[in-house]
Amino acid sequence: QVQLQESGPGLVKSSQTLSLTCTVPGGAITARHSYWSWVRQAPGKGREWMAAIGYDGTTYVRPSLKSRTSISWDPWKNQFSLELRSGTPEDAAVYHCTRGSEPRSYEYDSWGQGTQVAVST
86-115: per-residue pLDDT in tens? Predict the structure, then answer.
């Protein structure tokens, strides 16, 4: 396990872009077979895998979010980031960064504590 920490605004306006960053312990972000994901859970709904970036920089995005979602990383800063454009109230959720051994899995060995995001109209 590794300790992950999300950061980003707790409130964004509808139609604007949500940007979140996850900080990973030094060196771990390029550990082989590590896939770093963003997962969210809205009130009353199940977890939703959004996007992942692999230890080699390969990116994976949920098809239904692909038009407005990007994932990137800065391995020198030990960080990976999520950008969700054109926010709507339906994007209000707790956002977690995670680590797993597969890119689209819901099985993770590490979770950040999560950051609550609200979207104002």
Answer: 999 999 999 999 999 999 889 999 999 999
